[in-house]
Amino acid sequence: MAEKLQLQEVEVWDGNMAFAQAMRQAQIDVVAAYPITPSTPTVHGYAQFLADGYIDGEFVLVESEHAAMSGCVGAAAAGGRVATATSSQGFALMIEVLYQASGMRLPIVLGLVNRALASPLNVNGDHSDMYLGRDAGWIMIDAFNAQEAYDLMLMGFKIGEDLSVRLPVMVNQDGFITSHTAQNVKPFSDEDAYNFIGEYKEVNPMLDFCKPVTYGAQTEEDWHFEFKARQQKALMDSLGVIKDTFAQFEKLSGRSYNPVESYMMEDAKVAIVALGSTVESAIQAAKNLREEEGIKAGVVALRVIRPFPLLEVKEALKDVKAVATLDRSAPGGTLGMLFNEISAALYQNDNRPIINNYIYGLGGRDMTQENLKEIFRDIKRNADEGRLVTPLQQFSGLRGPKLSFFN
Amino acid sequence: MSKIIKNLKQFSTSNDRFEGAHLLCPGCAHSIIVRELLNCTDDNLVIANATGCLEVCTAVYPHTSWDASWIHIGFENAATAATGAEAMYKTLKKKGRLKDPDKPVKFVAFGGDGATYDIGFQFLSGAVERGHDFTYVCLDNEVYANTGGQRSSSTPRGSSTTTTPAGKVSYGNKKYKKDIVAIMAAHGAPYVAQVAPNKWKDMVKKYQKALATEGPVFINAMSACTTEWKFPADQTIDVSDLGTDSLVFPLYEIENGSKLTITYRPKNIVPVRDYLGVQGRFKHLFKKENEHIITQMQKDVDKRWEMLQRREEAGV
Question: Which residue(s) pair with B225 in the sheet?
Answer without folding.
Answer: none
